[in-house]
């Protein structure tokens, strides 16, 4: 059945509202290769190709919101993902969709949308808040408060800025200090002679996520590892 919007629901009585709710199946996580497949770039070049959708209650009103993801490739080696918000607005992110899911990161009872794409050989993470059927980009800042941004272009060539996190490793979200708000944990590996893991931590500051701690963990020297395996 079609997903009901708030306008549909307000005209139903309690029994009809409940029947409409349970008739829908919740989908709160999309993962490439598990419940969606990215088609050929030639197909995406001719038109947008729907990958899948999230259908879940973002704001706790017992109404499922629907967020659709599509792929398009306007030219060779150029891949984009379109995210369609519940209000129909199209949001463009760079790269092929790898994973998208919802989670309450800020502890306010409203779930954020996390979108992870693969533009090349890296992983890009975008975070959106939800308000009145709109998806709003959540900024990410460095330690000095400067927003981490990159320039992108829409299908008409218009320039715009996006806030994102880029790494070759997976990003995780955990409440590290028990305050009900989740931090972003972003490891970055440096494969030099000295095997180093760099871990960045981002904390919610009421407006966005800001880098608040930088920890360098020395795992081992590769020379020592070679000696250990030999001896």
TrEMBL record:
It comes from the Bacteria. SUPFAM superfamilies: Integrin alpha N-terminal domain. InterPro entries: Integrin_alpha_N. This is Uncharacterized protein. It comes from Candidatus Yanofskybacteria bacterium RIFCSPHIGHO2_02_FULL_41_11.
């Amino acid at each position: 059945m079609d997903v009901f919007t708030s306008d549909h629901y307000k005209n139903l009585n309690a029994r009809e509202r409940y029947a409409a709710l349970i008739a829908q199946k919740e989908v709160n996580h999309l993962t490439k290769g598990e419940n969606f497949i990215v088609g050929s770039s030639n197909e995406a070049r001719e038109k947008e190709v729907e990958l899948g959708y999230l259908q879940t209650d973002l704001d706790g009103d017992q109404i499922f919101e629907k967020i659709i993801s599509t792929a398009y490739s306007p030219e060779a080696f150029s891949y984009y993902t379109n995210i369609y918000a519940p209000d129909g607005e199209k949001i463009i992110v760079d790269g092929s969709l790898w994973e998208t899911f919802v989670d309450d990161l800020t502890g306010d009872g409203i779930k954020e949308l996390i979108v992870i794409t693969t533009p090349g050989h890296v992983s890009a993470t975008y975070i959106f808040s939800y308000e009145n059927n709109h998806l709003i980009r959540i900024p990410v800042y460095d330690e000095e408060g400067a927003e981490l941004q990159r320039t992108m272009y829409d299908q008409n060539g218009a320039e715009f800025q996006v806030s994102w996190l880029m790494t070759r490793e997976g990003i995780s979200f955990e409440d590290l200090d028990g305050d009900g708000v989740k931090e972003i944990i972003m490891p970055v590996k440096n494969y030099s002679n000295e095997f180093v893991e760099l871990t960045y931590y981002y904390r919610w500051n009421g407006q966005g996520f800001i880098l608040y701690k930088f920890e360098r963990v020395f795992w081992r020297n590769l020379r020592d590892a070679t000696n250990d395996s030999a001896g």
